[in-house]
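To whoever is on call:

I kicked off a structure prediction for a single chain this morning and the downstream step that reads the tokens threw a length-mismatch warning. I double-checked the sequence; it's 292 residues and nothing unusual in it as far as I can see. Pasting both halves so you can look.
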Amino acid sequence: MSIFKGVATALITPMKDDKVDFDSLEKLIKFQLNNNVDALVVNGTTGEPTTLSRDERVAVAKTAIEIVDKKVPVILGAGSNNTHTSISYSVQNEDLGADGLLIVTPYYNKCTQKGLIEHYKTISDNVNIPIIMYNVPGRTGVNINPETALNIAKTSKNVVAIKEASGNISQITEVARLTKGLLDLYSGDDGIVLPILSLGGIGVISVVSNVMPKLMHDLVESFLTGDTAKSRDLQFKVNPFVHAAFCEVNPIPIKCAASLMHLCKNELRLPLTPCSKEDLVKEEMIKLGLIK
């Protein structure tokens, strides 16, 4: 059974005076729930987990789970470049009530494909909730090869899906072919949701849905219900904003966008700094009617 179909928002973590802004977090989550989001990913890359303390990560996760109150699945990030740390996060997240885990490949230490297989299997052996593996080589320096994805699907008891953000359509096609019936496929790239859906994908873990959850929900829903023309038109509609939302490293521009909608403050933790291209972000938001 799939963790979700449709759009899961990779939620930003709002800050105020260098502390987590829980009032804004509640506002963000309620905005998502009121605008057709299908799931939430908390403490993923977009949520700046590497600059949150463990206590902060737990507090953010608890708050999200409490506010969502089982209306949609809550998937918690549990990635690390230390397998034992990732196990610790995963076990803790399961205890908190997560519906699933998003686990990015180990970053910086650049393990082999064998290391990736062992990493996911070892984590999987220690938890009982579903795991989405996350392939984003542009950030991590390591790529899950299609054959490795298949191996992990066969050897890790509860790795049920892959979030593909390699940007390599040829590779993603091979992942889809090899793992059909074994792994759910999610787009990890807002700019190519439709192509991934056409390969058998069932949704997207989205950055831009922080400010446009309904549009992204409709993009996926229209494809899954057979209206491919509408899905294509929505992909065309959203892509100029996608380019603006990645004009600097994520989550810098999307946090700027959320602040322009008064959902949170435009505040990040170092080494991330506020967006230097706010005018570009604002221009594309105006075109979409998100702000005036």
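Update from on-call: the warning came from a stale cache, not from the record. Cleared it. Sanity check on the structure: The CA atoms of residues 71 and 101 lie 17 Å apart.
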